[in-house]
Amino acid sequence: MDKFDVIIIGGGPGGAKTAKILAAAGKSVALVEDAHWGGVCLNCGCIPTKMLLGAVAPKGLLRGLERQRVAKGTVEVDYAALQKRVQRYTKASSQTLAKGLADAGVTLFNGRGVCAGEHEVRVVAADGGEQALSAQYIVLAGGSRSASFPGLTPDHDAVLDSTDLLNVPAVPESLIIVGAGAIGLEMADFFSAMGSAVTVVEAAPQLAPIEDTDIAQELQKLLGKAGRTCLAGIKASSLLTRDGQAVLTLEDDRELTAAKALVAVGRKPNTDGLEAEKAGCALNRRGYVAVDDYLKAAPTVFAIGDINGKTLLAHAAEHQGVYVARQILGEESGAYDSGPVPSCIYGSLEVMRVGKTARQALSEGGEVAVSRAMLTGNAIAQAGGDASGFVKVVWQDGRMVGIAALGHGVSHLVTAAQLLLLGQYSSDRLHSFMFAHPTLDEILSVAVQAPREPAA
Ligand SMILES: Cc1cc2nc3c(=O)[nH]c(=O)nc-3n(C[C@H](O)[C@H](O)[C@H](O)COP(=O)(O)OP(=O)(O)OC[C@H]3O[C@@H](n4cnc5c(N)ncnc54)[C@H](O)[C@@H]3O)c2cc1C
Ligand SMILES: NC(=O)c1ccc[n+]([C@@H]2O[C@H](COP(=O)([O-])OP(=O)(O)OC[C@H]3O[C@@H](n4cnc5c(N)ncnc54)[C@H](O)[C@@H]3O)[C@@H](O)[C@H]2O)c1
């Protein structure tokens, strides 16, 4: 049996980050991955989707300038060439990541990690060969995959999951997207920019259901203006392939047909076959690996990233990985604190948020107020040709607890917003924070200083 200080199952952002820190500190680390180094994020998540969106972004900007009669003509994106570029980039990045890990002293295992005890893991290779490993600590970082429900299960023919859709050989003439969370909205943006007739169906009363209603309503209005069909407040009952076409049945029995359909209704953890119970771990009610306040799933086992279901974001997986590595190294003893989590939905229209929504703050109680600024007042937003949208700041009992924005390019505001929030740069401290001029970031300062109104 090969012995290590730490065995990590899952080579996505969470597992890779943890492995690098521990190896740099002199620990012997085994990292087990059964698919691609870099996980979902690098191979079929964050990175390929942003490369697609990046390629169509200039089209959106030029459309804004065309509306102002300062640009004309068309720009074409070569879909086949773009797909090849994305594949080349992600493959090379995955290889570079693996090489970097190996160079840092991490021992890489290609195969499926299966828990065999509180300190033991079996690695099952694709050819069925097995290797037994033991360690003082195990870190579960196996991530998640697309969820499906009865009636809403990708058949990988005309009804696809997000990985299938990233690999479709040609842009579908029409596309139904079930689910208006981040995946649904980003895919809708790309394929619609590429010429697909896109229909988005969302069961919740609004698109981007976790965001505040004012953000979601403005988003739906602006997407409508851009020719997108978005049906919110209606559930998809079933999706199937009929005569090569995707056929969606809505809960009111209406039928919609398209060349392809995407099921983007959330994620489920990769716990099948992990045998986590053998390491002393339990699954919670939603099927994720249950962890305590220290991200411990058992006395010598941690679970980080998507597999613990806390926050399904790549940077959250990495942040948790840093915390767990520091705990193992004896550099951290307090409970895990994510701080205000930044998140973005990318595309020609973006949503950005750090910290709480007004809805969240209201549900917790206290005096909740909102201050805002419209992007129309920002010179850089105007220069880019699309100044729709706004920034809002959420205040709870006088403290800044959240900053959100909707509009073109607002994902670029996320880190400045986080710094403002962490430093509590409100009226009495903001004078010490110098914003470059002219920048989109200046809108944050305007929103922080705008009059506060009670949140509805
Ligand atoms: C289309 C899409 C777009 C996304 N865009 C963004 C974005 O823009 N920003 C963002 O923050 N997040 C985004 N996400 C979410 C992000 O990809 C995940 O939150 C992140 O990848 C989670 O990291 P992780 O390390 O927990 O797991 P993963 O990235 O899922 O990696 C886990 C790895 O473990 C492997 N594995 C699982 N079980 C085993 C086992 N038993 N043995 C060996 N290996 C195993 C898997 O093959 C996988 O490679 C997106 C997701 C999708 C699907
Ligand atoms: N930019 C980013 O950071 C980014 C991008 C993509 C994905 N992600 C992460 O990946 C995770 C998964 O994304 P996702 O968009 O699949 O999940 P999600 O949970 O964000 O959204 C799924 C949506 O599907 C809807 N839905 C469920 N059943 C339905 C039905 N029968 N009919 C109509 N609508 C239905 C839900 O109400 C929900 O709004 C997210 O939690 C997100 O954190 C992040």
Automatic annotation (TrEMBL):
Q: Does the keyword Nuclease apply?
A: no
* PROSITE patterns to which the protein is assigned, alphabetical: PYRIDINE_REDOX_1
Task: Give the required cofactors.
Answer: FAD
- For the ligand (NAD(+)), the binding residues are G179, A180, G181, A182, I183, G184, L185, E186, E202, G266
Give the Pyridine nucleotide-disulphide oxidoreductase dimerisation domain ranges: 341-445
Biological processes annotated in GO: 2-oxoglutarate metabolic process
Keyword annotations for this protein?
Answer: Disulfide bond, FAD, Flavoprotein, NAD, Nucleotide-binding, Oxidoreductase, Redox-active center
Disulfide bond entries:
C41-C46
Would you say which domain of life the source belongs to?
Answer: Bacteria
Q: How is the cofactor bound, in the record's words?
A: Binds 1 FAD per subunit.
* InterPro entries in UniProt: Class-I_Pyr_Nuc-Dis_Oxidored, FAD/NAD-bd_sf, FAD/NAD-binding_dom, FAD/NAD-linked_Rdtase_dimer_sf, Pyr_nuc-diS_OxRdtase, Pyr_nucl-diS_OxRdtase_dimer, Pyr_OxRdtase_I_AS
Q: Name one GO molecular function term.
A: dihydrolipoyl dehydrogenase (NADH) activity
One Pfam entry for this protein is Pyr_redox_2
The record places the active site at H437 (proton acceptor)
The similarity annotation says: Belongs to the class-I pyridine nucleotide-disulfide oxidoreductase family.
Please state what the protein is called: Dihydrolipoyl dehydrogenase
Q: From which organism does this entry originate?
A: Desulfovibrio fairfieldensis
